[in-house]
Amino acid sequence: MLKHLAIIMDWNRRWAKSRMLPAFAGHKAGADNVVNITELADEKWITHLTLWALSTENLEKRNEEEVNWIIKLVNSIEKYLNKMKVKSLKFQTIWDISKLPEDSQKILQDIKDATASNTGITVTLWLIYWWQDEILRATKKIIAAWIDPETLTHSEFRKYLDTSILPLPDVIVRTGWDIRHSWFLLYDSAYSEYYFTDKWWPGFDEAELDRVIEKFNTAKRNFWK
Question: The whole model's pTM is what?
């Protein structure tokens, strides 16, 4: 059974452009769809939903107006969570929210604290993330801990990654036309199924989610045996 679904939510802007709308309208539609897919995932007994919302490059390379709109959506995240018909949702973030404005950091931390003991579906939002930075941070932690490199194992190394708070992903989805992983969950994805769809994230719906689940259920997963 599919338990951990990870999604690269892509092509919000293209969705908006195809409708002659500003980029923000695509990000708003994408945020609305997070509510829809979270509810559906919970109904289908998925226990972990991991969503890549904003990369380091997005923050650095997109125009200031668009970034500010995205930050406004981050600041309204409690409103989105309150709209969800999901009980006992646990909310987490991965990586460096310190690069966000202080009010955004407080909003996110308050929600994480308030839901930390919940036992329902865990929604993990990736913000200001880049995998190469994660590897560097993990390496620095290992050096600081004076771990003997001769005794370092794969499982021990993973304890120092940001993703150590998550189970290994069952399926990694990328919406839009791109067929690449962009470093997303790279260390953890050796046994993951990949699902690439030409659906843009705001249009990723229950029918497409069911196709993801069906692909997972019918995949031959022998784990290299």
Answer: 0.93
| pLDDT tens for each residue of 43-91 | 999 999 999 987 766 666 667 777 788 888 889 999 999 989 998 999 9
Distance, in Å, from the CA atom of 73 to the CA atom of 113, rounded to the nearest integer, reads: 20
Domain map of the chain by residue range?
4-132+167-218
The 3 state secondary structure assigned to the chain is CCCEEEEECCCHHHHHHHCCCCHHHHHHHHHHHHHHHHHHHHHCCCCEEEEEEEEHHHHHHCCHHHHHHHHHHHHCHHHHHHHCCCCCCEEEEECCHHHCCHHHHHHHHHHHHHHCCCCCCEEEEEEEECHHHHHHHHHHHHHHCCCCHHHCCHHHHHCCCHHHHCCCCCEEEECCCCCCCCCCCCCCCCCCEEEECCCCHHHCCHHHHHHHHHHHHHCCCCCCC
Which are the catalytic amino acids? 10, 58
Neighbours of 44 (CB within 10 A): 15
Question: What is the token pair recorded at 26?
Answer: 């695509």
Residues 6+ apart with CB under 8 A from 150: none
Which two three-digit tokens encode residue 183? 């470093």
Report the top-level CATH class of 4-132+167-218.
Answer: alpha beta
Rounded to whole angstroms, the Cα distance separating 38 from 46 reads 9
What CA–CA distance (Å, rounded) separates 137 from 111? 25
Task: Report the pLDDT averaged over residues 103-114.
Answer: 94
Report the amino acid identity of residue 205: D
Could you give the CA distance from residue 99 to residue 158 in angstroms, rounded to a whole number? 24
